[in-house]
What does this fold into?
Amino acid sequence: MDIKFSTGIWVFGTGVERFAPIGYKPAKPIVELIDEAAKVEDLDGLEFHYPTEVNEDNVKIVKDSLSRYNIKAVAIAPVLSQEAQWARGALSALNEDTRRRAVERCKKAIDIARELGAEILIIWPGREGFDFPFTTDYRKLWNNYVSSIKEIAEYGSDIKIALEYKIEDPSSYLLHGSAARALTTILELKMQGIKNVGINVEFAHAKLAKEYVPETIVLISRYNALYHLHLNDIFTEVDLDLFPASVHLLEFMELLYWLREVNYNGWYGLDLFPRYLDAAEMIRQSIANIKALIKILEKVGWEKIKKTIDMNNPIESQKLLRELLGFS
Ligand SMILES: [Mn+2]
It folds into this structure.
């Protein structure tokens, strides 16, 4: 299996979090971050936020720097959550000026994506929802959100618009809490002839939605909507972007099996939060985890795994689990 790995340039950031408000590491210029990323073997692509990481002023330098290292720009993610102006929503904002600003930001992010040759626009609808009961006309909220996505998808008809669902945080309640909820927007727009909206599945966000990620991948693939992946892991409720497969090992193995089975040929994106760890080393170990699991799957044999699944027999599947763990 030939896998292309990407990561967010934000992974090389300072590590600012709720309980470390100034971070753990010094801030560095974007070009230095790309220099660091280039040192990671097997990393073929990078993802950027617009306008905080890449913007009209630095896009040329970023482009030069990427081409010098032969790194591909994979995705641009417009900042729609981490600023006070989006406190009461961005693409779904009930305030029309705010909503217009959010849509315009996404269009500018698409321009940047085109300039860098990135094929994906990641929309993380982290403020598309509400915070308190009895405050919101949910009809207006959904109408605004879906028409914003429609306008963005029409503007970027050559770009894949990938919705990254999450159940809550930073807003208290989010419209796209699960894959199925994101699919309602995708299918509604499909019925209107818009075919470039899909999903970026973040492993930890799927776990927060109580999904079993291998099945989620299959559901999304039914609608040709699996556009991108943000691989990581999580213990229970707090989204700290841990090493992929470091907690949900067997689920991760089955996920990798099903990604192959649905012929996913997109990027294996890594959305990690190294905090006090060295970012390059966390990415290296994450890639090594995934590669090792694929090696195990190959060793046990894709055909054998398929046959076991097709038996639909829980007893036989336990034997397979032990074989995958090296106990047979
Ligand atoms: Mn993510």
Remarks:
- The beta strands are 5-8, 43-50, 72-78, 120-123, 129-130, 160-163, 173-174, 197-202, 226-231, 268-270.
- The chain has a mean pLDDT of 97.
- Residues 38 and 123 are 25 Å apart (CA to CA).
- The first strand starts at residue 5 and ends at 8.
